[in-house]
User: Which sequence fits this backbone?
């Protein structure tokens, strides 16, 4: 529980520092952020980011009992140690560190929305900027 | 299909057919189906073609599972595990009744294959398809008899083997199984678990060949691209051989070299050399190899244009082979020219060389005029500075050299063309301008200078320690990556919002990774205001003017180099322009335009 709390704090701090990344998403876009052990054990809490919804909290902590019940389009999952390295990275543009950690397979990504839904919510540029636009064994 | 049937392969496995009428197994548009007897006559034609050419005909059954349902908006899986790539459809967990129905459908598709005249059947669990979803502990979280430990996850595969053998009797059954999933971070099978699945398949009995494959579509590790060295995965075949006993192994993952495959077969590591993409690049490859004409084999450069198109729901094409997918209108081979001409090709980049060779194959007398002291143009320059596997591009250059020699194409080096062209070459009937692109250094200067990026790559211009590269397309990225690799501090200034806009999707990740890993700073969405003594002034985010400090400013912006069009307009009877000399693009367009012009001159 402590670990998850710490992970949520680290995710929150990273999100707040990198809000520019999410600027192009539509007002209905919702993104989940989880600690790896919460995801694997299907218990604990997750963060939901609603970057462009004025009527709802920007970042909300919600209980996590499985991805099916998480009302988000995509999910990022990382162990606390990786999140620590993400937040302590002083390299210019933390977007680069995020990208590297995705490439290194230390932050993992899931999509719950269908391709048309992702398109409708303007995810294409965002996913490309973090290296998820063109990925896969045939694409590297 | 006629071209494929005539490749000389001993066994030809036809494209995977989905077995279910619902289309849950359908992976891509235009995929063939085998869920009804009405399809049998069309499959019979394919089997007959393979047999006419002396091959053993195998029909693959491909249920895409996690990657299926292309027309449906959902996919089916053993368990409801979300997608890790944005272009696949949300999952739905299958009931036990649905699983059993799907097993029956596989068997029915296998039976139809044999009825159509195929000699045997292959079921693929390659790349994360349906059977792989059951085998993997990443996608199979079931708590019934189809999920749990290795033996229970293998149950679906065992049922498939048994049902199909019952349907096809003693006809051969091949299984395509992963030697490695490359899905560790998602909790996928380890290599040991993959081996265990192979062992179970073999011990079930009825499996006549294992085709060993590597990776899932969603793996973050490249398995078949240019950055993977040929032969890299051979160790997996060696490991698999330990558990397959008398069941032969077919293997060909990142194994484009027939000589290497021969060694593996001689060493008892594999039993059959599997080949796909290299045959797309040159369907005559095996015949040429058998005849000792290896130098004439057009190489697969591992660019993955084929798959990047396929996975974007487009018919696949090949960078190396302009005929692929156009066999009907272009013909499998260039036809003899009705009127033989003397053709001068100016420029020996890929467009010029492809055109020269194709024209020479048709009986034209061809001369290539190259202003530099070597052939290859920007293909050679890019090969020299490629940070993936240089040999892929050099192989293409070696092929061109061999073909120029074989066809007797005269090549003149250090032969810049000017207004005296007609005097020097009075008997030329047709001229092809394949002069490529040149770098534009036309920027607003305010005390600074701009260097030619290609000259930097050629070593004609030396860069300082703090470099600004103007343009984040493929040429700019090559320049930036090479300079950063030499320890220089490099910044890229790009007007678009993303780098690598002109890079093929399959290679984007490599460049973007290099940019991040080499610490190259990218200013995207930036407008250049002026080049000053201290560097580059740009209009950047929020319309602010920002100075990007640099001691060297390098341009990568390419303009078509078609200046000879004016010079030669009234000097020759027939004048053509191809490749980057029309508009700077890439290797694919250069080769294809070169071929198409050569085929009609």
Assistant:
């Amino acid at each position: 529980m402590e670990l998850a709390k710490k992970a949520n704090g680290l995710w929150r701090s990273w999100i707040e520092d990198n809000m520019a990344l999410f600027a192009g998403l539509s007002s209905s876009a919702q993104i989940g952020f989880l600690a790896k052990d919460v995801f694997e054990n299907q218990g604990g809490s997750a963060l939901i980011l609603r970057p462009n919804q004025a009527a709802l909290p920007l970042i909300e902590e919600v209980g996590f009992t499985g991805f099916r019940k998480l009302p988000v389009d995509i999910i990022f999952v990382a162990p606390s140690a990786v999140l620590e390295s993400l937040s302590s990275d002083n390299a210019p543009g933390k977007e680069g560190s995020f990208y590297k950690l995705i490439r290194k397979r230390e932050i993992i990504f899931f999509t719950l929305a269908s391709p048309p839904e992702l398109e409708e919510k303007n995810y294409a540029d965002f996913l490309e900027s973090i290296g998820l636009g063109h990925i896969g064994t045939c694409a590297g | 299909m006629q071209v494929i049937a005539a490749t000389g392969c001993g066994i030809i496995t036809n494209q995977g057919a989905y077995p279910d009428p619902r289309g849950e197994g359908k992976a891509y548009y235009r995929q063939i189906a085998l869920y009804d007897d009405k399809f049998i006559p069309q499959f019979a034609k394919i089997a007959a073609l393979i047999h006419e050419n002396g091959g053993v005909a195998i029909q693959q059954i491909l249920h895409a599972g996690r990657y299926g349902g292309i027309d449906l908006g959902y996919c089916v899986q053993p368990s409801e595990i979300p997608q890790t790539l944005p272009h696949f459809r949300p999952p739905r967990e299958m009931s036990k009744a649905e699983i059993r129905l799907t097993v029956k459908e596989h068997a029915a598709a296998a039976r139809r294959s044999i009825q159509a005249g195929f000699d045997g059947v292959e079921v693929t669990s390659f790349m994360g398809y349906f059977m792989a979803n059951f085998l993997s502990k990443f996608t199979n979280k079931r708590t019934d008899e189809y999920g749990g430990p290795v033996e229970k996850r293998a149950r679906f595969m065992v049922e498939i083997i048994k049902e199909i053998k019952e349907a096809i009797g003693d006809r051969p059954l091949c299984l395509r199984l992963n030697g490695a999933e490359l899905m560790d971070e998602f909790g996928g099978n380890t290599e040991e678990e993959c081996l265990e699945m192979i062992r179970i398949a073999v011990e079930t009995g009825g499996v006549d060949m294992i085709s060993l494959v590597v990776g899932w579509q969603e793996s973050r590790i490249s398995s078949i691209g240019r950055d993977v060295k040929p032969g890299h995965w051979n160790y997996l075949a060696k490991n698999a051989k330990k558990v397959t006993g008398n069941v032969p192994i077919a293997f060909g993952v990142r194994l484009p070299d027939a000589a290497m495959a021969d060694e593996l077969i001689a060493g008892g590591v594999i039993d059959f050399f599997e080949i796909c993409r290299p045959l797309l690049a040159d369907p005559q490859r095996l015949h040429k190899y058998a005849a000792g004409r290896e130098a004439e084999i057009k190489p697969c450069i591992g660019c993955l244009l084929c798959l990047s198109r396929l996975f974007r729901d487009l018919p696949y094409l090949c960078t190396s082979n302009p005929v692929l997918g156009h066999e009907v209108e272009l013909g499998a081979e260039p036809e003899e020219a009705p009127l033989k001409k003397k053709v001068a090709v100016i420029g020996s980049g890929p467009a010029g060389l492809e055109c020269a060779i194709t024209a020479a194959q048709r009986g034209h007398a061809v001369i290539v005029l190259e202003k530099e002291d070597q052939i290859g143009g920007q293909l050679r320059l890019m090969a020299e500075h490629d940070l993936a596997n240089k040999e892929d591009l050099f192989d293409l250059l070696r092929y061109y050299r061999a073909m120029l020699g074989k066809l007797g194409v005269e090549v003149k080096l250090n032969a810049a063309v000017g207004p005296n062209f007609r005097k020097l070459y009075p008997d030329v009937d047709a001229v092809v301008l394949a002069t490529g692109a040149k770098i534009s250094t036309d920027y607003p200067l305010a005390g600074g200078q701009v260097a030619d990026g290609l000259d930097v790559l050629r070593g004609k211009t030396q860069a300082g320690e703090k470099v600004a590269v103007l343009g984040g397309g493929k040429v700019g990225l090559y320049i930036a990556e090479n300079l950063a690799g030499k320890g220089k501090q490099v910044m890229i200034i790009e007007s678009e919002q993303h780098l690598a806009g002109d890079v093929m999707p399959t290679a984007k990740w490599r460049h973007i990774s290099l940019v991040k890993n080499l610490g190259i700073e990218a200013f995207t969405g930036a407008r250049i205001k002026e080049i000053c003594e201290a560097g580059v002034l740009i209009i950047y985010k929020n319309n602010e003017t920002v100075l990007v400090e640099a001691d060297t400013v390098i341009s990568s912006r390419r303009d078509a180099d078609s200046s000879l069009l004016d010079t030669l307009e009234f000097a020759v009877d027939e004048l053509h322009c191809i490749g980057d000399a029309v508009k700077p693009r890439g290797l694919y367009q250069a080769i294809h335009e070169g071929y198409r012009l050569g085929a009609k001159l």
In short: Residues 104 and 121 of chain A are 27 Å apart (CA to CA). The helical segments of chain A are 2-17, 36-41, 80-88, 94-103, 115-120, 123-129.
